[in-house]
Amino acid sequence: MVRKSAATTETPEPAGTESKAARTRTRILDAAAFVLSRKGYGGTRLSDVAEQAGLQAPAIYYHFPSREDLIEEVMWAGVASMREHVEAVLDALPADTPPLDRIDAAVEAHLRHELEISDYATAAIRNAGQVPERIRARQVAEDNRYADTWRELFAAARDAGLLRPDLDVSAARMLVLGALNWSAEWWNPRRGSLDSVVRTAQTMIRNGLSAAASAAEPAKPRRRATA
Amino acid sequence: MVRKSAATTETPEPAGTESKAARTRTRILDAAAFVLSRKGYGGTRLSDVAEQAGLQAPAIYYHFPSREDLIEEVMWAGVASMREHVEAVLDALPADTPPLDRIDAAVEAHLRHELEISDYATAAIRNAGQVPERIRARQVAEDNRYADTWRELFAAARDAGLLRPDLDVSAARMLVLGALNWSAEWWNPRRGSLDSVVRTAQTMIRNGLSAAASAAEPAKPRRRATA
User: Fold this and answer.
1) Tens digits of residue pLDDT in B44-57
2) Which of A136, A218, B193, B206 is in Cβ range 3.0-4.6 Å of A206 for a Cys bridge?
3) Which fold is adopted by the domain A68-216?
4) Do A130 and B207 touch (CB under 8 A)?
5) What pTM was computed for the model?
């Protein structure tokens, strides 16, 4: 599977010198995410990042003033690109999309993006609480913005009377995000198709949340009575 | 919330000198789990562990030959105590307990234990892939044994025809474990009662998995038709 960089998701690259600089910057970020997810904050050395990126270590300083700045950007970039991706998918839905279908779409968008940027996701997961607070500040702010997106999704479903009344909505949201976030820790193409994981997650989450017994067949054409 | 040590879960302490040694060993392990979950493998120093445990650093060497041995034990102890706890809960159920009720019981046992030993759980989560392979070997073996417990739970439910036929059973199992494992990353008593989280997780997981529309009210007395 080709893993798309979190750093290039949103930025079409212009031609010329700037393009090459942007590509090098992305290569450094991807390499830093790779090393940071495996060696941790304490064990991440710029020499390892340079080797992974196929560069000389001093070249990194052309793009990032310090090791701390580079790590700060990695911790932030994964969350930022996730939020932007999921919000773009939600914004592209028709305005009258029902709340549970919007959650379905967000589940798919999160899972697919998580597994595309898995080095960034894993780096953020494993280094949460290990990097100094000042390095995490921008990530934490971005985390909160992304959490708001999910809060709105769940609030809309609750306000429409679509959630089981016995759910603790806040706990339900965190359990769903946990199931999605954790996928970077176990999924790889040898574990079965990503499509199958996405469908299973959608089915479980919709049926787990939905107040309606008729939700037994989510996001599909309704079955005939003869089925 | 009082966080029970992973290291003392299974061992009643005898009186006398041995008891004191065992308590000190547990105190060192608890302190190491605390430091390892926050500083990571690369950043964990025995002097920090000693300070957290309220001991002099050389005292650690009386119980653990090396820093590596101590970290190895922490990475293993959390998984081992989790597996033993969940298996003990399952073994105590009546032999004719239906498969989905057994999953309910395992969900509750995992969640409650996870949040009791959260330093061990967080240390294992955040340092997976950061510690050298030889340090993880015993943890990985224990992980696999615990995964087998969950495989058996899901296989029994599937063989009894209780799971939705459209689920990828392996993906469903990993999504459930992800939701549970991630709880150590977000839950604290300020996030609401643990009972409420447990009930919400059970409701979502049972309804997410169950083929029966009648599973809309899980693990409760059946509602009257007048409800």
Assistant:
1) 999 999 999 999 99
2) A218
3) Tetracycline Repressor; domain 2 (1.10.357)
4) no
5) 0.84
